[in-house]
Write a structure and sequence with these properties.
two-stranded antiparallel ribbon; two-stranded parallel sheet; 2 domains; Fumarase C, Chain A, domain 2; Ribonucleotide Reductase Protein R1, domain 1; mainly alpha
């Protein structure tokens, strides 16, 4: 587990203690099912409920000898139960317990992520609302395109996070499945009634069919959903990294008192939190690739997926949870320079309005190809000579003849922002 990025909630969920607790829930539920079928006496079940527990140290001692974690766990529980311990794990195979318990761990982890993402989304909505009408440059390919607002930029992040939140809920349903069907899925030593009872008690759906395990396509989907969520956070972080560049300097991640940006250059304020988020997104995509590799197992099951999942599941949930919290910290402390945004709107001397001028010429009767080439020609002079587009256009006889005094009003940024309120209303903002 990547301890540096581990949070208290996720540490608890993926702790050995909680893992064993989930295993015990499955084992006791199975005993209750056998009791309902008349194969475990009532008094024995009562003693199992009272005495069933585990000691991680004792489990570790047994595992050193038997080289099998579930056997070690079952033996430890049976020792504590006493004579009735013989009923524990009756008719089950290891992954009846492990995969059903895994569903509980994954579900618990997803609930934490949903809460954290909801908090981040609320923070982003507040930011979007605050800068709803703050004009800034819209960029495509990293190049100035047309005016927009900073709030609209953030609102786009919100929309993506809403989809991420919906995917987390959907994938929780996808993985909330248990199985108690035996060594190859035939229920040979444990009838379907046991599986039905165990799953119902634990709030899971029983798999319609399984072999020794639950198939790993759902787990691959889950890990991919987490990778997509990290891609959203990376997109936000990448945007802020670009906006913090010295040449742009429109928004900066928080930089607290006493913080240092460089061991060599005292002036540095680097977007280190955003860079960290981007790095962790890469790691999460690697975990998604590993989960996809787990789908194709030999026959009714091999164990090659197990070692992978012991690493990627705790790590993945820890790093996503950490990244969600870190992104919220960035947005809550984001420094937005509205004056710099206004100055950057004028940086290219009117080039942002080229499309509006071209369309106005077309509306007044000029051929579109001619209008495009006319405006492009003057735009290239702006780039190369540092001249003002409006002044150049005012000197053109064709433009004056078609647009006259209307040319000036075409260089008004508010024209581009007139539908911002309508877009925000779609989100209730």
């Amino acid at each position: 587990m990547i301890e540096r990025y581990s949070t208290e909630e996720m540490r608890r969920i993926w702790s050995q203690e909680n893992r064993y607790s989930k295993w015990l829930e499955v084992e006791i539920a199975a005993c209750e099912a056998w009791n309902r079928l008349g194969l475990i006496p009532d008094d024995s079940l009562e003693r199992i409920r009272e005495r069933a527990s585990f000691d991680p140290i004792r489990i570790a001692e047994i595992e050193k000898e038997v080289e099998h974690d579930v056997i070690a766990f079952v033996q430890c529980v049976a020792e504590r139960v006493g004579e009735d311990g013989r009923f524990v794990h009756m008719g089950l195979t290891s992954y009846d317990v492990v995969d059903t318990a895994n569903a509980l761990l994954l579900r618990e982890s997803l609930e934490v992520l949903r809460g954290e993402l909801s908090s981040l989304l609320d923070c982003a909505r507040d930011l979007a609302r605050r800068y709803k009408h703050t004009p800034c440059v819209g960029r495509t390919h990293g190049v100035h395109a047309e005016p927009m607002t900073f709030g609209l930029k953030v609102l786009n992040w919100c929309y993506e996070m809403e989809r991420d939140l919906a995917r987390l809920s959907w994938v929780e349903e996808e993985i909330s499945v248990g199985k108690v069907s035996g060594a190859v899925g035939t229920y040979a030593h444990c009838p379907p009634e046991v599986e039905s009872y165990v799953c119902e008690k634990l709030g899971l759906k029983p798999a319609k069919v399984s072999n020794q395990i639950l198939q790993r396509d759902s787990h691959a989907v889950l890990t991919s959903v987490l990778a997509v969520l990290m891609g959203t956070l990376e997109r936000i972080a990448t945007e802020i990294r670009h906006l913090q560049r010295t040449e742009v300097l429109e928004a900066l991640e928080p930089f607290k008192k006493g913080q240092k940006g460089s061991s060599a250059m005292p002036h540095k304020k680097n977007p280190v939190m955003c860079e960290r988020i981007c790095g962790l997104a890469r790691l999460m995509r690697g975990y998604a690739a590993a989960a996809l590799e787990n789908q194709a197992l030999w026959h009714e099951r091999d164990i090659s997926h197990s070692s992978v999942e012991r690493v990627i599941w705790p790590d993945a949930f820890n790093l996503v949870h950490y990244s969600l919290r870190l992104t919220r910290r960035v947005l809550e402390g984001l420094v937005v320079d509205q004056e710099r945004m206004a100055r950057n709107l004028d940086l290219t001397r009117g080039l942002l309005f080229s499309q509006r001028v071209m369309l106005a010429l077309v509306e007044r009767g000029m051929d579109r190809k001619e209008a495009y080439e006319l405006v492009q020609g003057y735009s290239m002079r702006c780039w190369e000579e540092g001249k003002d587009l409006r002044e150049l256009l005012e000197g053109d006889d064709r433009v004056r003849a078609l647009l006259g005094e209307d040319l000036a009003r075409l260089f008004d940024a508010s024209f581009f922002l007139r539908h911002v309120d309508e877009v925000f209303s779609r989100f209730g903002l």
